[in-house]
Amino acid sequence: MKAIVLASGGLDSTVTAAVAKRDGHDLSFLTISYGQRHCIEVERAGEVARMFGIVNHLVLALDLRAIGGSALTSNHPVPKDRSEADRQGEIPSTYVPARNTIFLSLAIAYAETMDASLVYLGANVVDYSGYPDCRPEFLRAFEEVVRLGTRSGVEGKGIEIRAPLLSFSKAEIIRLGASLNVPFHLTHSCYDPSMSGVACGRCDSCRIRREGFQAAGLTDPIAYAEAGT
Fold it and tell me: Which residues are within 8 A (CB) of 61 and not within 5 positions of it... i.e. 6 or more apart?
């Protein structure tokens, strides 16, 4: 069965790709270069694609900096050294307006042209930073949009959206990835890396990743500029 994987180059999307590969699907990758400050993840997505032997890897350029509204697509500072309690509060400034809505729309369009019946993404609702477009109710609603608003849906073929890591903790995701030989050393999670691509160690994404590896009892193979507080 043909499947599109939204591949960001991050840990969750790479484990998701490994799950889709394990399940025997014919995979194509879609990576969105949207003007994010951590654009090194696009490069890492390419490295992951090559490691997985992906023949079809489409990289789409999309300038969300023209819209702004996020610390990831503007010069606003990325929050650092936030505790788990802080992360459970209001939606952080790293939220990119409608990002998953936009990305899933592009993935569905790609799926229609590739005659794929599945779209995989690495959304997670447990260890996440409060993003509303990572919730299961959003994904269910989007599937209904696909059913009503695409040729595939109207013709009854349908395109299923799968988020296999949705209810996993970060530690569970990492353990699953380890069991599937995921190349964690190629993945990038940091929101505010150095010019050379070294992870800051202090943003929400770095902290969640580091805490996940610690809870999983495994060593994170990437380097960090700082340990954080």
Answer: 33
- In order of 36, 92, 149, the CA distances from 67 in angstroms are 12, 17, 25
**Domain residue spans of the chain:** 2-216
Long-range CB contacts (within 8 A, 24+) of 223-226: 223/198, 223/199, 224/198, 224/199, 224/200, 225/194, 225/198, 225/199, 225/200, 225/201, 226/200, 226/201, 226/202
Give the CATH number of domain 2-216: 3.40.50.620
R_g of the chain, CA atoms, integer Å: 17
Edge-to-edge, what's the strand order for the sheet holding 160-162? Answer: 57-61, 26-33, 2-6, 118-120, 160-162
Task: Determine the residue type at 187.
Answer: T
**pLDDT over 90 percentage in the chain:** 86
* Closest C-alpha among 112, 120, 228 to residue 165: 120
Encoding tokens for residue 69?
Answer: 């509204």
- pTM over 0.85? The answer is yes
CB atoms within 10 A of CB 125: 17
pLDDT range class, residue 128, cuts 50, 70, 90: low
Contact by Cβ (8 Å): 160, 171: no
Query: Which has the closest alpha carbon to 142: 184, 186, 180, 111?
Result: 111
Cα–Cα distance measured from residue 68 to residue 75, given in angstroms and rounded to the nearest whole number: 9
